[in-house]
Amino acid sequence: MQEKNKYGIWIKIISIAIPVVVAILFGVRVDYELPIFLPPIYSSLNALTAVLLVLALVAIKSKKIKLHQRLMQTCIALSLIFLVMYIAYHMTTDPTPFGGKGFTKSMYFFILISHILLSIALIPLVLISYVRAFQEEFPAHKKISKITFPIWLYVAVTGVVVYLMISPYYVY
What we know:
Blueprint: H1 2-26, H2 39-61, H3 65-92, H4 102-134, H5 138-166
């Protein structure tokens, strides 16, 4: 029981710390020009994550447990790499205003805001899902994963959609 409490505490700490640190770092500007333009790269990481999430679902439905495990660990790693690149880009680059109008602008902000809010909610869901699998609590893992999977897939796909919608307005 002590080990479960330890993970629970860490999940809470990490789930709060990541959004707080990201919010703080968004207020920090570093006068440095990145050698590459990151948005298409981290958008591609989102696309790859979405594909791997679906493949991981197919793998577990096919009882390919090790493949499922490797795919999910890869998705977590890709999400962490995405987060680092996303922060680096926003610390070194002024925000790009969305230039669309009317319904397109409303749709963009709906997708963006839902993407951001669900990405924050996703942190504890992924951590809980991972810990339950790690602890071989598979019924509990399956139960939380039924919530985690569609949210994670939505966040990954809408990350790509947000990039595609704002990409015409980037200043290179």
